[in-house]
Amino acid sequence: NFTIPENLFSGVVMLVVAVVTCALTTKLKQQEKLRIKRQLTNNINHELKTPVAAIQGYLETMITSKDMTDEERAKFIEKSYAHCQRLTQLLTDVSTITRLEDGSSRIEKESIDLRAIIDDIASEVALLGDDKRMRMNIDMPESLPVNGNYTLLTSIIKNLTDNAIAY
Fold it and tell me: N or C: where does the chain have the smaller number of CB atoms within 10 Å of the terminal CB?
């Protein structure tokens, strides 16, 4: 007959509980990481679709509107070019985010005028026409310097604006 001392038995039970707790915690952390990655992938997908849709809209309008003035065409080409630059910056940001996961980089910040970003987005919305029967009122200073990432702030404000229009 072999008897396990009580303090050894309780120590083994505590060890088993600790191992099970650690395994569950690790599994939950992995599930949370996977959820965050899925959400990030969905957000990136949405952010990339926005400038592509805008470029496509501008180009389709130029192709189908034979009576556009040269000035209107130039404006649409400028807007398309701006969206191409935004796409390039978004792809750079995706690369930055990937490096951030590895802990090897930081998001670049600079002094930017938030009002200028909002004005650009407002002029884009104005090109949609009045079919949505919406107005964009901007109640803020003529200049609002902030320290941030131009592309990420543009994406945030554009996303909020697109969602406000859609919903």
Answer: N
Element containing residue 111 per DSSP (H, E): strand 110-113
Which residue in the block uniquely carries the two structure tokens 């935004």?
Answer: 86
Residues 62 and 68: beta-carbon distance below 8 Å: yes
- d(CA 54, CA 43) in angstroms, rounded, equals 17
What are 147's strand-pairing partners? 111
Please check the confidence at residue 73 and state whether its pLDDT lies above 70. Answer: yes
pTM score: 0.48
What tens digit of pLDDT does each residue of 91-117 get?
Answer: 877 776 676 666 545 677 899 999 999
For residue 133, give Cα distances in angstroms to 12, 82, 136, 165: 70, 26, 10, 10
Please give the C-alpha separations between residue 49 and each of 53, 55, 79, 161, in angstroms, as whole numbers.
6, 10, 16, 15
